[in-house]
């Protein structure tokens, strides 16, 4: 029997509504600002209802960019961010899958010592080792390149640990059955482990894509070529335009565009993302 508590139900719904409003209001303000012209955005009070300049602002930033950010089209910035995010995401997942596979299914000396060495690197994010990492990237000639933007961020102890835990839940009988059928290590990995890990891969893909898309410090450090600017760097440059009043309508339109790819990824992979974070048994 379920006890009916209308007051608690009302408070729960009220809390959810207030939370949604707190999260949605800045996004609404961003959208509204992206639909007005520059003159209206410097007038008081700020508008809270959409204007009629949405498509004009969209065309301006996507194709032409903003003078304060070097006139770089936002479409180019988003393409740079997309390439870097995908390289980081795919690279992290691939390396983590292979390293977890080796640690779980291959017996070699100091196997667990290597695993804990990988795990300890959680205490050494790129911000801590940024100077030696920059020197290595510079010596390899990877400044102002997609490889330089992505390779130093590819290794992931968290993903390795997650895939190791997933592989440990797979029964040993499945490995023995694969051996009886004549499947080698690669066949076992490709035909059995990968399909069983697809929800975990999807969950990590969402998390790592957003991580790669939002990178700011590392791209800022190693890029000097304007053609390699990412969208997060571009928004910061727009805000710091020298001797110019920020064009808030165009900046907000750029911010709105920068939100879209992560939102699309989360929505498209929502079910598998939730399952990958909540499944405990295979």
Question: Which features characterize this protein?
Answer:
single chain, 282 residues, mainly alpha, MetI-like fold, 15 helices, 69% helix, globular
Describe the model.
With about 280 residues, this protein is mainly α. The protein has one domain: Orthogonal Bundle (MetI-like fold). The protein contains 15 helices and no strands. The radius of gyration is 24 Å and the shape is globular. The model has no long low-confidence stretch (mean pLDDT about 85).
Write the layout of secondary structure elements.
Layout lengths: L5 H28 L4 H4 L12 H11 L9 H32 L5 H10 L9 H10 L6 H5 L6 H12 L3 H9 L4 H12 L1 H16 L3 H6 L8 H9 L8 H21 L1 H9 L4
Please provide the ordered H/E string of secondary-structure elements. Answer: HHHHHHHHHHHHHHH
Query: In whole angstroms, how far apart are the ends?
Result: 33 Å
Counting helices, strands and paired strands, the structural category is: mainly alpha
CATH topology-level name:
MetI-like fold
The helix fraction, in percent, is 55-70%
Major sheet summary line: none
What's the gist of this structure?
With 282 residues, the chain is mainly alpha-helical. It has helices at 6-33, 38-41, 54-64, 74-105, 111-120, 130-139, 146-150, 157-168, 172-180, 185-196, 198-213, 217-222, 231-239, 248-268, 270-278. It has one domain: Orthogonal Bundle (MetI-like fold).
